[in-house]
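Field reference: "sequence" (input) and "structure" (output). Example, EFMT1 methyltransferase:
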Amino acid sequence: KMDDDDDIPQLSSHTLAALQEFYLEQQQREGMKTSQGFNQYSIGSIEEDWQLSQFWYSDETASCLAKEAVLAAGKGGRIACISAPSVYQKLKEQDGEDFSVCVLEYDRRFSVYGEEFIFYDYNHPLDLPENLLPHSFDIVVADPPYLSEECLQKTAETIKYLTKGKILLCTGAVMEEQAAKHLGVKMCKFIPKHSRNLANEFRCYVNYASGLD
C-alpha cells in the first residue's frame, strides 16, 4: 500500500527553516506590540494602508501639530483629529496633559483606541455618534484622505459641525483656494513632512493666530 502522503509536495528543509523563522519573527513582532514596553500610540504601531490613501506624518511634524493643537485647545480643551491618526497618537503620548482627544477615522484598526475611536466615512459627514455634540471641540485637526474638492467639502461639513471655531487643516498646496472657500482657512509657513516623501506638496491651513507661522 502506498503512503498517503507520497503525493504531497515536501518543502525542502531550507524553505521550512526560512518559513519558521518568518513566523517566529512575526510572532515576536506581534508579541512586542502587546507586551508592556510597546507604545500602542507610537507612530507606525499601525502601519500605513495605501489602499486607504494613508500617509503618516514624520515624527517631527506629528509632534509639532500635536503641540499646536494642545496650545490652541487651551487648558482642559477638547481636540478632534479627523483622518489624522498620527497626530492623535502623538497627543496620546503626552500623558497627563490637561486635554481630551478623539480620533475620527475610516480605518477600523484604530478601534484599538477604544472609546476615543469614532468610525468616520467622509462620504457621510454628519453620520456621527450622538455623544459628539455640535461645536463641542476647541480645535479640529483634519487631513482629508484625498486631494479632491468633493472630499474636502464633505470633510469640511464635519469640521464645521464639531469645532467651536478653530480649525487646523493639512492638505495639498493645490487645495489652497478650496480650503479658503469651504473653511475660511489660510496657509501657514509651517510645512508638514511625511515619513515617506509624497509627490504632492503638503501645507497647513488655519483660521486663527497659530504658532505655525
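The first strand starts at residue 77 and ends at 82.
The radius of gyration is 21 Å.
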